[in-house]
Design a protein that fits this description.
alpha+beta, 4 strands, 59% helix
């Protein structure tokens, strides 16, 4: 059974997709995939219980999907074409599908190993991508290929270690980095008590009160990070900024961060 948080995130994703018929059908198809759900849940077994990392399971993947779609919609409202649109290889709806697939499937490889899990995610995601796309686009091979390629690039590049080129894949990088609030960190803090490698990430993330994505004043997207302690700047500077630096979407972003009730520091 899905948790209340997962269900709430799925509803928020559906709202963000709006009245776009193809992405809406794709989302419903993936949300009903019981094998995918099981893979996402097992990714957390490996991540949290075996390795002592933070959440990389169904809630995290849905949160990244919501983040990515929110940013994609802000770019669309600002009149900025996606890479598929710019290349005349697909429509905005196709880009929404690619971004959604990449975000929802990007951490499946954590069900096997942390090391190079993005490569494992690509392999594990292909059956789900192919099955879902054939269900919603049974008679359009070229569109299926374009969407699958964008989704695969987003999964492959989400760690910021590989060069990516599409705006769509760049949003996955940033959306992943934005999921760093304290709720995600508290899972591992509750499970593991002994000191170990990676604790700085957990404790810095535990100080992040909120990450808000909204329309920027000068650029289409504003990311605002509010924290309770200065240790949260580690998460912003060593995780989020590193991913933004590798993202083709970086020129469209404003980034602010600061301790609650104190002036924000502007990074971008």
């Amino acid at each position: 059974m899905k948790s209340p948080k997962e269900i709430a995130l799925e509803r928020a994703i559906i709202r963000e997709i709006g009245d776009l018929p193809l992405p809406l059908a794709l989302a419903k198809e993936l949300f009903a995939d019981v094998e995918l759900q099981a893979m996402q849940e097992y990714a957390n077994v490996v991540s949290i219980r075996r390795l002592g990392y933070n959440d990389h399971g169904p809630v995290h993947m849905r949160m990244v999907a919501l983040n990515a779609l929110t940013m994609l919609n802000l770019l669309h409202e600002a009149g900025i074409p996606t890479s598929l649109e710019h290349d005349e290889a697909g429509t905005y709806e196709d880009s929404v599908c690619g971004v959604f697939l990449a975000a929802l499937l990007h951490d499946l490889g954590m069900s096997v190993s942390r090391q190079e899990h993005e490569h494992l995610s690509v392999i594990l995601a292909q059956p789900a991508i192919n099955h879902a796309l054939k269900r919603v686009l049974p008679n359009d091979l070229l569109r299926r290929v374009a969407i699958r390629s964008i989704a695969t690039e987003g999964i492959f590049g989400h760690m910021g270690t590989m060069k990516i080129h599409s705006l769509e894949a760049g949003l996955i990088l940033v959306a992943d980095g934005c999921d760093m609030t304290k709720g995600r960190a508290r899972i591992t803090l509750a499970v593991k008590t002994e000191s170990q490698v990676g604790d700085i990430h957990k404790y810095s993330a535990n100080s992040i009160e909120s990450v808000t994505i909204s329309r920027g004043a000068e650029k289409p997207i504003r990311i605002d990070v509010e924290m309770t302690e200065n240790v949260g700047f580690f998460q912003v500077e060593e995780v989020l900024m590193q991913k933004i630096a590798m993202s083709p979407a970086r020129r469209h972003l404003e980034l602010y961060a600061g301790v609650k009730n104190e002036p924000r520091k502007r990074y971008l």
